[in-house]
């Protein structure tokens, strides 16, 4: 350590600014103001103090940021910023009582204690943290105390600080702390800044005797309930890819909650004191400090980067955060992904610490014993009993626990067996057992991984019909899962730096298993065909194994599907699968994206699409398995990703391909499925005249009835009927879809080659961002296009008003009242991008018998679809069908095109020209360059 760094370590606050020099400067300034003869001297003094102190405060922050970059200690930075705040407040008080409200011989009523409470009371502050102050006054007060407090607050507010304050007597503090748990928590962390120590000590003593004593259980229950409510608001998983550093699961607030509880229950003031109380061992106390320091580093950097109190690690900040924190890229993992993996591992450690404190509280009976997991079937049990399967475990108050501390050492397979027994008997886990399991991870070596019984037990856990997701998640949280399956351990806490996946890789895989069990139970009708096919498959085990392993090779330099198949060929025999089942699992993993890609980005009415897919799946059983795996994979990506439209597309692809792979046999051929869909449509609209209904059925091609779900068919029918009854050749309608976070806008208009380009341009001109599009044409030459737009407003009323404005823009554009290129060029501006996506353009004549298929993939942005369709039109290409999809930040748009004569696009030179033109659109900084 250099001499300079050693001095900073010894005196971490002294060098933020020269306190004595500033005091001398401000004293001279105050003397000049108060001795002047001008009126309004108080306001003048407050203003000058605020301006000079604000400059000192900014300089102090700049110094703290520089030292944070040099040293990397987040806790030290938070301590320095808190001390900086202390010194500012002390200076303000000193100058206010000396020059504005002096009291040379103060009475007992003219005394006060200024106390830091809440987070500020902890002595730790982020750059954007609020400053919470309590002005503690005697029971008998004079106007002096109120005046001093008011003058100080005006100076602090004029500095631009966010100050929360209260002015109370000790009696008022005790009364309010008794009634309000938030105030109680704030006083729990009270710290005297300056003033009457006797007042502060009176508050501390009375708080301890009148509030704390005898109320530990009440406080613990309130804090844990508060935590649960907070996590419900933010999402229960700690593995969301844009986590909230302060309030998210595994974040700083969880550590604060632990320490509040520890301080209240055990009456300690520092983490290391919990070791003497038997709550933590030395290693766990060090882990607490490491987690705290890391999270404070992230939070302080985050505030400095954002220039405000930003608590969410959003994608647009993560890359810069990774660079500031010193992460570098490795093969298969970018710097930002390595940073976020570290973040999630720390969040997991915070969860472990939470479990440890919970167990200690239960031993003291300060925390109620949790009830059985509501997701597991309940059985009547005695409070304490043993298992016939193993004497190494007991049931302790409805939770599985070890019989003694050597249970895992005697037989390391018990590290798997404990989870198997918990799932089999529907038991929750005792924290002591989980703590011991985490400490025993080194016992899981090659012998345990290759042990036949261990693998049999694991396979039964994985394929459980009831508890697989719950038990696998607990195995993951303890570290047992990653240790037993090292390939899974490589993806633990691994984030994917994209907007498509909402969870880390390990969390996504576990959630996929949870979706699969719900498919098997059939309790989610929206999973559609997968529910039906699950009852027909021959071997459910290999489907569970494939689902568990499908993303196991993420983060490697090569394609994760191919690498994952190779991993499966190694692991499946270990799990006890036969060679033929191993081949099937490897195939499923290698092809796990194929069905989703084809369903969402290919023309399913094109015979060549179906033939190509049939050549991949080759058998009906494999296609069944792939459809179920695809459903589970999509549904586990994140909230709102699975929807009826995707379900319908997968159903259509499956049934279109079925007769090809069975040699003509199909349980439901195309004609029958169209007839059934039309019959269901008729039954849903009994109020329609039969003749009108039959005429309407004839207006849609068979593909429409197969690729559109019934609810949307009915909505389309009513919309078209209303439009034609009103004599409108052009009509629009809108609706919100809160589950997917989108707004749907449907356009009914005369079809023409540039229709999609006009709709896309009108949306871009209105600032709307297209993420999906369902495009169909009627037999009488009308287009029925449904466009999915990202939502802009939280309230439906606001969003629908916005959607109506966009619909109006589309109608004006189609009527020729708007010159789109100019409007779009003005509307779209350059924006910083959090992501980079390598642009790709593929032209293929073998994917369709009649059309050239143009697949465009690149970074999504407002106006992209308009730029692409405009370019295709300018190249004299006729768009026969378009398939628009967005996967987070990646847009994948597929166009089936011909030349103006209706023929495929031939010739390498022509293909190259189209590719260059479309790549120019993908590379454009803004739509003005693309138009």
TrEMBL record:
Tell me the protein's name.
Answer: Bifunctional uridylyltransferase/uridylyl-removing enzyme
> Which coenzymes or cofactors are required?
Mg(2+)
Q: How is its activity regulated?
A: Uridylyltransferase (UTase) activity is inhibited by glutamine, while glutamine activates uridylyl-removing (UR) activity.
Q: What is its EC number?
A: 2.7.7.59, 3.1.4.-
Q: Which reaction does it catalyse?
A: [protein-PII]-uridylyl-L-tyrosine + H2O = [protein-PII]-L-tyrosine + UMP + H(+); [protein-PII]-L-tyrosine + UTP = [protein-PII]-uridylyl-L-tyrosine + diphosphate
Q: Where is the HD domain?
A: 505-626
Name one matching Pfam family.
HD
Q: Which PANTHER family does the UniProt entry name for this protein?
A: BIFUNCTIONAL URIDYLYLTRANSFERASE/URIDYLYL-REMOVING ENZYME, BIFUNCTIONAL URIDYLYLTRANSFERASE_URIDYLYL-REMOVING ENZYME
Q: Which domain of life is it from?
A: Bacteria
What residue stretch is flagged as signal peptide?
Answer: none
Its job:
Modifies, by uridylylation and deuridylylation, the PII regulatory proteins (GlnB and homologs), in response to the nitrogen status of the cell that GlnD senses through the glutamine level. Under low glutamine levels, catalyzes the conversion of the PII proteins and UTP to PII-UMP and PPi, while under higher glutamine levels, GlnD hydrolyzes PII-UMP to PII and UMP (deuridylylation). Thus, controls uridylylation state and activity of the PII proteins, and plays an important role in the regulation of nitrogen metabolism.
UniProt xrefs under InterPro entries: ACT-like_dom_sf (IPR045865), ACT_dom (IPR002912), HD/PDEase_dom (IPR003607), HD_domain (IPR006674), NT_sf (IPR043519), PII_UdlTrfase/GS_AdlTrfase (IPR013546), UTase/UR (IPR010043)
Task: Show the NCBIfam families listed in the entry.
Answer: PRK05092.1, UTase_glnD
| Family affiliation | Belongs to the GlnD family.
**Residue span(s) of domain ACT:** 744-826, 853-929
One GO MF annotation is:
[protein-PII] uridylyltransferase activity
**Keywords, ordered alphabetically:** Hydrolase, Magnesium, Multifunctional enzyme, Nucleotidyltransferase, Repeat, Transferase
Region entry Uridylyltransferase, spans: 1-388
> What free text does the record give on domains?
Has four distinct domains: an N-terminal nucleotidyltransferase (NT) domain responsible for UTase activity, a central HD domain that encodes UR activity, and two C-terminal ACT domains that seem to have a role in glutamine sensing.
Magnesium is among the record's keywords: yes
């Amino acid at each position: 350590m250099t001499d300079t760094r050693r001095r900073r370590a010894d005196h971490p606050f002294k060098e933020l600014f020269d306190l004595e020099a500033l005091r001398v400067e401000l004293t001279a300034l105050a003397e000049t103001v108060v001795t002047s003869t001008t009126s309004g001297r108080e306001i003048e003094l407050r203003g000058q103090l605020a301006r000079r102190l604000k400059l000192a405060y900014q300089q102090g922050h700049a110094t703290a940021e520089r030292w944070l970059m040099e040293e990397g200690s987040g806790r030290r930075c938070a301590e320095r910023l808190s001390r900086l705040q202390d010194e500012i407040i002390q200076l303000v008080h000193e100058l206010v009582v000396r020059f504005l409200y002096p009291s040379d011989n103060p009475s007992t009523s003219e005394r006060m204690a200024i106390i830091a409470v809440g987070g500020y009371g902890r002595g730790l502050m982020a750059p954007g943290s609020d400053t919470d102050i309590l002005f503690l006054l005697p029971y008998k007060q004079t106007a002096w105390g109120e005046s001093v407090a008011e003058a100080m607050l005006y100076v602090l507010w004029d500095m631009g600080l966010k100050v929360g304050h209260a002015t109370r007597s000790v009696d008022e503090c005790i009364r309010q702390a008794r009634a309000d748990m938030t105030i109680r928590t704030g006083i729990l962390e009270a710290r005297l800044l300056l003033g009457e120590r006797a007042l502060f000590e009176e508050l501390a003593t009375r708080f301890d005797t009148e509030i704390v004593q005898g109320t530990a259980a009440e406080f613990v229950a309130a804090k844990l309930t508060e935590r649960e409510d907070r996590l419900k608001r933010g999402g229960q998983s700690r593995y969301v890819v844009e986590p909230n550093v302060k309030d998210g699961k595994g974040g700083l607030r969880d550590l604060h909650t632990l320490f509040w509880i520890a301080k209240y229950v055990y009456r300690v003031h520092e983490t290391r004191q919990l070791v003497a109380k038997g709550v933590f061992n030395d290693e766990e106390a060090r882990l607490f400090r490491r987690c705290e320091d890391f999270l404070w580093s992230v939070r302080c950097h985050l505030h400095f980067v954002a220039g405000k109190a930003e608590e969410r690690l959003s994608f647009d900040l993560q890359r810069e955060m990774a660079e500031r924190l010193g992460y570098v890229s490795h093969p298969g993992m970018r710097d930002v992904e390595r940073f976020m993996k570290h973040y999630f591992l720390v969040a997991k450690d915070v969860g472990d610490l939470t479990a440890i404190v919970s167990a200690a509280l239960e031993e003291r009976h300060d925390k109620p014993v949790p009830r059985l997991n509501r997701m597991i079937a309940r059985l009547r049990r005695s409070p304490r009993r043993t298992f016939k399967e193993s004497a190494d475990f007991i049931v302790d108050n409805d939770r599985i626990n070890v019989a003694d501390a050597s249970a895992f050492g005697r037989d390391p397979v018990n590290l798997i067996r404990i989870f198997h027994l918990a799932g089999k008997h529907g038991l929750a886990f005792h924290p002591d057992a989980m703590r011991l399991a985490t400490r025993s991870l080194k016992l899981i070596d090659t012998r345990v991984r290759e042990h036949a019984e261990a693998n049999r037990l694991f396979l039964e856990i994985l394929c459980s019909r009831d508890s697989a997701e719950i038990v696998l998640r607990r195995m993951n949280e303890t570290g047992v899962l990653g240790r037993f399956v090292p390939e899974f351990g490589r993806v633990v806490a691994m984030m994917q730096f994209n907007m498509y996946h909402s969870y880390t890789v390990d969390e996504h895989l576990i959630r996929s298993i949870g979706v699969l069990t719900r498919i098997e139970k059939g309790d989610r009708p929206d999973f559609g065909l997968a529910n039906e096919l699950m009852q027909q498959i021959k071997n459910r085990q290999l489907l569970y194994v494939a689902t568990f392993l499908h993303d196991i090779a993420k983060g490697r330099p090569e394609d994760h599907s191919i690498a994952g198949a190779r991993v499966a060929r190694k692991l499946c025999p270990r799990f006890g699968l036969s060679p033929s089942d191993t081949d099937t699992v490897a195939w499923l993993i290698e092809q796990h994206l194929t069905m989703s890609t084809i369903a969402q980005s290919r023309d399913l009415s094109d015979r060549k699409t179906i033939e190509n897919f049939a050549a991949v799946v080759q058998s009906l059983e494999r296609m069944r398995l792939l459809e179920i795996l695809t459903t589970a994979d999509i549904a586990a990506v994140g909230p709102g990703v699975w929807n009826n439209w995707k379900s319908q597309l997968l159903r259509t692809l499956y049934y279109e391909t079925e007769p090809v792979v069975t040699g003509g046999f199909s349980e439901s051929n195309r004609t029958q499925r169209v007839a059934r869909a039309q019959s269901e449509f008729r039954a849903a609209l009994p109020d329609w005249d039969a003749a009108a209904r039959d005429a309407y059925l004839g207006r849609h091609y068979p593909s429409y009835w197969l690729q559109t779900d019934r609810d949307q068919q009915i909505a389309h029918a009513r919309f078209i009927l209303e439009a034609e009854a009103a004599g409108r050749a052009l009509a629009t309608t809108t609706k919100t879809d809160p589950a997917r976070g989108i707004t749907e806008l449907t356009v009914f208009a005369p079809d023409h080659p540039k229709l999609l380009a006009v709709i896309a341009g009108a949306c871009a001109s209105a600032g709307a961002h297209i993420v999906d599009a369902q495009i169909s044409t009627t037999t009488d030459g009308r287009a029925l296009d449904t466009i999915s737009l990202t939502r802009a407003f939280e309230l439906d009323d606001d969003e629908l008003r916005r959607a109506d404005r966009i619909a109006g823009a589309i109608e004006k554009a189609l009527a020729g009242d708007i010159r789109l290129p100019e409007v779009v060029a003005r509307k779209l501006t350059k924006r910083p991008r959090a992501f980079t996506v390598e642009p790709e353009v593929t032209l293929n004549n073998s994917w369709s018998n009649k059309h050239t298929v143009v697949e465009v993939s690149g970074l999504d942005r407002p106006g992209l679809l308009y730029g692409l369709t405009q370019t295709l039109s300018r190249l004299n290409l006729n768009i026969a069908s378009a398939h628009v999809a967005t996967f987070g930040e990646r847009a994948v748009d597929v166009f089936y095109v011909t030349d103006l004569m209706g023929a495929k696009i031939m010739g390498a030179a022509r293909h190259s020209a189209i590719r260059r033109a479309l790549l120019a659109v993908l590379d454009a900084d803004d739509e003005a360059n693309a138009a």
